[in-house]
Amino acid sequence: MAGANQYIRQVLHHTEPPPPVNARFFYSSPIPIDDPLSPLPPPTTATASAKRPPKAFSEYDNAALDKAWHDLRRKILKYNEEQGEKSGSNDGSRSRAGSTNIQGSRRGSGSQPATPRSKPIRLPASSLSQVEGLGDGTSEGSAFGEATHVPDTTGNPFVRAPSRKQTVTTSRNERPARPQVKQHDTYDWDDDSHLLDQNATAAETKDVRPSSAPSNKVAVGVSRLHQVEMPNLQMTPIYWTPVHDEAAVIRGTWFYQETMLPVETAVANMLEAGYVDLQVWTETWKDELNSAVEVGAVGEEKIVHKLWPDKLPKPPDSRPSSRHGTATRSDRDDLLRAVTSNLAEGAPETPEQTRDRAVEAACDIIDISSGPGGADNKASGTSTYGYNGATRSYSSFGVIYANAKEARLLKPSLLPSRYYGRRPLASYIRKGHKLGIAVVRGFDQRIWNKIHPSKSSPRAAKAQQGAATSASNVPPQAQAKDDVPDENTNVTDLIFVIHGIGQQLSHRMESFHFTHAINAFRREVNVEVGSKEVRARFRRDMGGIMVLPINWRHSLSFEEGGYRDGSENPARNEFTLADITPETLPSVRGIVNDVMSDIPYYLSHHQPKMMAAVIREANRVYQLWCRNNPGFADTGRVHLIAHSLGSIMALDILSNQPTKVPQHLSDPTSIDLDAEQLDHFLFQTSNIYNVGSPAGFFLLLKQSQLLPRVEGPSATAMDDPIANTLTVCGERAQYGCPAVDNVYNIINPYDPVAYRMNAAVDATYSATLKQAFVPSATPGWFGVGTKSSSIWGGSTTAPKDGAQMPTLPRLPSNVEMEVHNFSREEIAEKRMALLNDNGQVDFFLSVGITEPIYGPSAIQSVADQAKEKPYTELNKDDLRWECMDSTNVETKSFYMLSDDGRVGMAQVIYSNVLGVRTTAQFTSKIFSQDPSKPHAWSSTNLSNLQFPNDKHDFTADNCSITISEKGTSYHIKSNADAKHIVDLKFTQACPGLVVGKDGTSYFGTDPQKYWGRMIHKFWPRCQVEGQILRSDGPVDFKGKGMFVHALQGMKPHFAAAKWNFANFHSPNVSASLMNYTTPPSYGETPVTVGSVTKDGQILFTGASPDTKPEHTETRSDPDSDWPEPAAVRFTWVGKTADGKDAKAVIEGSLGERADRIDVMGELPKFVKSIVQGASGVKAYIYQYTPKMTLKLDVGGEVTEEEGLLFSEATFIS
Known about the structure:
Largest sheet: 13 strands, antiparallel
Shape: flat
Distance between the termini: 85 Å
Helix content: 10-25%
């Protein structure tokens, strides 16, 4: 054993250390934390997460992480040294920085423990091994027990795994003995006594667990809202409980050349060990490669490095050294096997254990080669994604190190062979040809940027500009690049959002989690703050804005509910909410219990507990914020947004809040919140924004008034000290007298629980005020400027950059007061001014369900393009998904008319709501040929949405739409609904097209700065193959079809009030027409595009006004009140390619409708009526499938075509 250790030192200590590797940290998460427009985290399973490639931290974050990693490594070395000195001869084990533990390495390589476990044990995956005090590390039922706690080598910072000589299988409840380790306090590399196996027994071991083991946390991300915990390499949110935003972190050292994604941790360490073993960075290795090329296949066989060692031989007692005291090349060939064998005696039980042992040996080789003060060249963390997805160990592969940076992983059939004459190095690698799997040592940012270019859009640019950071003097731009810090990006205004009822529901329905909503809201704030119009209204000293959730409900449990008298009475009846809930209507009762029960709880004896939960959570988050942002407590401002029940609790808390925070609480970072048990906030609230608030109703219930606080610190109070008296104001502990500068009550006029608050100040005076609306500089509502303040500040300072701040004038009275009680009127006016600088509290939202009347000039119809260019043929790239990051609906629809007369459709609908949440649905429908039988209809929500192949394709779980290499066919496959399995192929039977230049109509008063658009792209005639498999058998759709790619780049009901669609096919002719009419906001402008094809060619295209649909007869639909079409005339007018006038007409009765769809039919009736009344949206779709005749007139030559028509008429508003 001593001889083997001497041999290791001979090989490694007499050569120059390898160059430091350019490591890169990655995280496995669906949320890109460096994107201020990152989507919300979807409900994620471990399997789904594993399908996603890891994301790279920014350059700025990576530099900080790597520095912290090496700093922690040195601290752990020092800690282990000190613990060794303190423990003296005591038994125990220490771990060193930079080694991969047994179970951690097993996770990295994707293998499983040899012995089954009763339940999974979460283990760290860091190569900064667990030191004492960082966790138990045991695994129930593991064959290795506490072998995770690796014994420390004497004074050097690297340690190998403990001997497995004494390994036994333990029971579930029995903890294995900790191996006895001799402690050393020297960095003498030649002192090898610490490498001797310790034959300790369980009786001789002692569990030593110091409490101050080194660890570290590094803030990361564009807004510094997440942190990476070291050494266990986990990324967690800083200010809230993780909601699918906790992620494993990987420190990569070797990377796949094609993607620059990290090689699996275990494989990377084996590659690095081989790199060290062969001394690839030296001139000697270059000479060996050149010699191998000259010799041929025999020579190339000799330079192949086996990625994983073969069966381990018994280690020799000694190794001869060369005459000059260095190891020979033949010595180095056995280095990894020798070190691996030295780790433990006895044959391993499984291949996984063999690999574990090899990885441990590799880590020791890497550590020793760099020395105790050198760089950490090991990969660390748990790999969940490998080459093309699944993780691999490449157990039979060999490696050829092509140069100091590049290597190739080759399977056995690609390795050099004298028998087959294979020469991969000379014939492929050196010529730059693709062979095997190319990997590179060290991360290359330039290549990464080329492979993964950053997305850019005006909205994203605004969000990046507006994103605030919680790291002092570190702007978001500098987190990706080394920009000069901009003080305006530092947060000066912190917004806490207090939720209302219903958060218990998020335990069962993930999408209702409040954190998701606030993450989305923060995105919108970033976009708004990034616009010049909004920033012009900021006070001069204002920087960034940060929005954080106050999740108070998740810390509470009311299951003790029922009767309590406090005594220990054995006859006491204890019951819970579950006990009194009947089993009937479980879904409805579950929602009522989870959502509505918070209200009676608050009105019960639980109220103090609920208020304390809000205070405790807000103070916890504020304290964390101040610790991460030194000086904020002195200069920053805190605002509250309180929703629903949250506004009631905020009113209660602020009514009891000290007018000024006591001096002994001025430094929040030094306060022990557990010991203090505060009944108020640690911060002074500048502004409170009540949203959807019933606070006015609660003031009425308690017969209280809304009053300003006497001696309040607001600007108005300072300007008018005469008003700041008890005649006008109230005192602390007086309900309705909040300690706050400004109160804003934001009211959505269609929110049934939102109440006014002006009357709670003075009913008579409030009746004289005109209704105030939240003004806006942009579509968002943050651009509020006031006469004497900004919405954030309550400050009279001038706006930034000398910009002219629009004023919100004090609104005049509607009528004179009937009784001129000037004393009362003056008091009311002063109270209003003290409560809000704008002179009133209530502000109504201009609800975005209708638009102003812009007129027809605000739409630039595609018909205008068609006058100059009738149509443009499509190529493959024109059919990419756009995936807009703002509100839109994008669809790919496939319509089938089979040879035997069956009509069907398949469609993917991809939606983005406000740039906040993206969803996708796959729908398919088979129209029944028997009127007595229902249509076969399926609509399924999709998850794990992806747009591979440069956005040409769409994939989701159990669903895909892929385009062919030439871009002439689509393959639609879906088994998302097991009762509706779709397998269809659409192939162009004539060229695809858009009408006009780009097929787009633009919405906006400025054509150069449009705010919406509508696009339709067509394959007007296709050959269809395939079927839809139902439970009663397959339905064959061999025949003809049509494909439409549509994009509504705005809110759908803003773009169109009604639609008409026609799709006609005969044996020789196909005709399609798409028409919509805009709502009154755009002058009820009709927009129509259409095409007629014949014999596989585009005959002509047309556009409005001549190409159009007409409902020649209608009948009233009593259920919807819409005029349902009974007979139609579809007209196409245009010119052929050779200039002939062309016209086509389909006219006649539609017959009985095939189907009517109530788009909002799934909503409860009362909800449906509210939506319809508020928005005017009442969407119905009428569908028809009659046989019709198309009359075609080309240059005076008239023909008729009998065929099948699929037609839709849609009414929206």
